[in-house]
Design goal:
alpha/beta; five-stranded parallel β-sheet; 162 residues
């Protein structure tokens, strides 16, 4: 078993993805990195029903969203658990930018996404253009935050050993 990292983006007031990411890291013995945009999101920015909101302009304009901070020792991690809320059937653009910022060749990635109603869909396929051809996306699941430590550890172990 190599070194593990939980990298996550969380934007909603309830911070569901953040809570889940921290529980997953604790249960699986992983380090944690929060993916934060350089310009933080406000509630108005993530109001997806407003066609002029920032999240809509970014997604439909296919804009990169610069990430604040870096994982300084990314080369040390063999297995990354990547968490985010589902936006428009895929990852928020800040997650795409995060992936593009690193050489993830020969690493395994397991995706856990949160959503109030959307399924996981083709989220993993939509992230493939942002990683190396030798990066393996081993799983993509939708979680709701009610998963307990044993269930989270079991999922992490299963994904890393795929």
């Amino acid at each position: 078993m190599g070194k593990r990292l939980v990298a996550y983006f969380s934007a909603s007031r309830g911070r569901v993805t953040e809570k889940l990411a921290k529980e997953l890291a604790s249960a699986s013995g992983a380090d944690v990195f929060e993916i934060k945009p350089e310009e933080p999101y406000t509630e108005a920015d993530i109001n997806w029903v407003n066609p002029l909101s920032r999240c809509n302009r970014e997604k439909f304009g296919k804009k990169d969203v610069p990430v604040k901070g870096k994982v300084e020792n990314m080369s040390e991690y063999d297995f990354i658990m990547l968490g985010f809320p589902i936006w428009y059937g895929c990852a928020p653009n800040v997650v795409n930018t995060f992936l593009k910022d690193y050489d993830l060749a020969d690493k395994k990635i397991a995706i856990f996404a949160t959503s109030g109603g959307s399924g996981i869909g083709k989220t993993a396929d939509k992230l493939k253009p942002y990683v190396s051809d030798t990066t393996e996306i081993v799983d993509a699941v939708r979680m709701n935050g009610s998963e307990g430590p044993e269930e989270l550890k079991k999922w992490a172990d299963k994904c890393e050993n795929k």
